[in-house]
């Protein structure tokens, strides 16, 4: 059975996920998204995966959420506070969400994973390091190349070509 | 550890549902990116939970790969938002129609 810490984390994570999508201001929405990402990091701590949890905090809460916050600040003021959605679509979306949750939840509750428990110790983070440099080394290099390529690509995409260099200096 | 695998899976299903709702309803590009982030986090939570209960270190390794690739995806997505905003002065995806036939 779930304990109190788990329940608190679940409430924080799911509540701030709803807040991130439903809050009127995009800035508060992105701060709520930080709460969701931090809550998932808390779940990783509960799952005895401190390395992944710290990676999650460093990458998601530390960089992605701040990047999103800065992008939101580049957008016009009235667009930050304007909600663009129509009512019928909203009800259809809530219906779709409930269908997904009930169907998947029923499948999981009915399946055998309800009985899965473990007494074995959690995988050590040394195993992850060994995995990275032995079996997964080509994937690790590929991941580095993808990261470098995507950052370069996004810089090229966001570059303004209509601004001359001397204007840029001013 | 007192929580079981099914608890983590149900939280993950709830996050997935919220993300799908956001993708279906919101027309704001930035909010859709929020929804995609929530779905990716639900997947990561599931991967790590199953890796803990098997137990196998592959779950955590895959989650780390997934987090890194998601970071790349967000960087590209945000620069696309900036380019689209510069072109249309709006973040409503209904306005981004120049590729529509």
From TrEMBL, chain B:
- Major localization listed first in the record, in broad terms: membrane
- Membrane-related topology note: Multi-pass membrane protein
TM region positions: 6-25, 32-51, 63-88
GO terms for cellular component: NADH dehydrogenase complex
> Where does the record say this protein resides?
Membrane
Q: What GO MF annotations does this protein's record show? A: oxidoreductase activity, acting on NAD(P)H
**An individual GO BP term:** ATP synthesis coupled electron transport
Name the keywords, alphabetized.
Membrane, Transmembrane, Transmembrane helix, Transport
NCBIfam families (alphabetical):
PRK05715.1-2
Family per similarity comment:
Belongs to the complex I subunit 4L family.
Name this protein carries in UniProt: NADH-quinone oxidoreductase subunit NuoK
Where does this protein come from, organism-wise? Nitrosopumilus oxyclinae
């Amino acid at each position: 059975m779930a304990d109190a810490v788990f329940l608190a984390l679940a409430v924080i994570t799911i509540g701030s996920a709803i807040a991130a999508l439903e809050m009127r201001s995009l800035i508060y929405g992105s701060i709520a998204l930080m709460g969701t990402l931090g809550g998932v990091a808390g779940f990783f701590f509960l799952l005895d995966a401190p390395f992944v949890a710290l990676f999650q905090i460093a990458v998601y809460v530390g960089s992605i959420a701040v990047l999103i916050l800065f992008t939101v600040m580049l957008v016009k003021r009235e667009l930050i506070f304007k909600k663009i959605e129509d009512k019928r679509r909203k009800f259809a979306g809530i219906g779709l969400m409930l269908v997904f949750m009930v169907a998947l939840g029923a499948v999981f509750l009915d399946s055998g994973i309800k009985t899965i428990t473990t007494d074995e110790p959690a995988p050590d983070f040394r195993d992850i390091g060994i995995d990275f440099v032995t079996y997964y080394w080509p994937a690790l290099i590929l991941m580095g190349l993808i990261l470098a390529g995507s950052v370069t690509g996004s810089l090229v995409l966001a570059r303004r070509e209509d601004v001359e260099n001397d204007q840029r200096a001013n | 550890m007192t929580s079981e695998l099914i608890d983590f899976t149900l939280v993950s299903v709830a996050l997935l549902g919220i993300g799908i709702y956001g993708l279906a309803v919101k027309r704001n590009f930035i909010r859709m990116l929020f929804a995609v982030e929530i779905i990716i986090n639900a997947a990561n939570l599931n991967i790590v939970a199953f890796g803990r209960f098997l137990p196998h270190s592959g779950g955590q390794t895959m989650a780390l790969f997934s987090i890194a690739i998601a970071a790349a995806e967000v960087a590209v997505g945000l620069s696309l938002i900036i380019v689209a905003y510069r072109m249309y002065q709006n973040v409503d995806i209904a306005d981004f129609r120049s590729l529509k036939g």
